[in-house]
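Dig into my protein:

:::
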Amino acid sequence: MKKLSLLIALASTSMVGHSQNNNEKNVPPAPIEQSKFSIGIIGGFGHSFLMPYSNTTFRPSWNAGISAIYAPKQHLGIGIDVLYSVEGAKFKYTNPVSQTDYTVQTELDYIRIPVKAIYFFRGYEKDFRPKVALGPTLGILMSETNSVNAASVDLGANLSLGFNYRIAKAIWINLDASYYQGFLDTYSSNSDKDLNGNIRLNAGINLGF
């Protein structure tokens, strides 16, 4: 009888322990805590131009700098970048005598400061989160090449579409396609209103806190 009682006690203890282990395995993982602030590096490449000219052609353009995002809500955030941006325009002409084509390229280098209102799609627990951003962009002219008397300040708006992809806890890869449209006349010395513009693909990595 004592042996039977001991076997029953051991079996009961084993079953309780097994049940507890199964329950622990079935407990869902804790939700990922939202990082309200993140900072990182960003760089991009694309095409810059001047409006309203029709004889512009592809002009390589790039930027690089730091990016920060404050997102107090799951779907809403505010972003600010500080970028060194190489811009300008490339014009195509035809020599009226020889009928040969030639190009003239200008370069305008800015410190760009885009401020963005960002809307994130999908919940924070998702690794892949599409986003759209819109906001003003300030440009401070640092240098100009093949260009004379460009305005020292440029102001416009930037629209971007892209996504964030989480590769580890609070580490995000960012990819955005952006369009910038200037509002201020770059060259007040002529009769046309010369407006900066660029199209770029930007990529970066942010660390959340």
About this structure: The domain at 33-208 is CATH 2.40.160.20 (Porin). Strands lie at 37-51, 56-57, 60-70, 76-94, 101-120, 128-145, 153-168, 171-182, 195-208. The helical segments are 2-26. The chain has a mean pLDDT of 88.
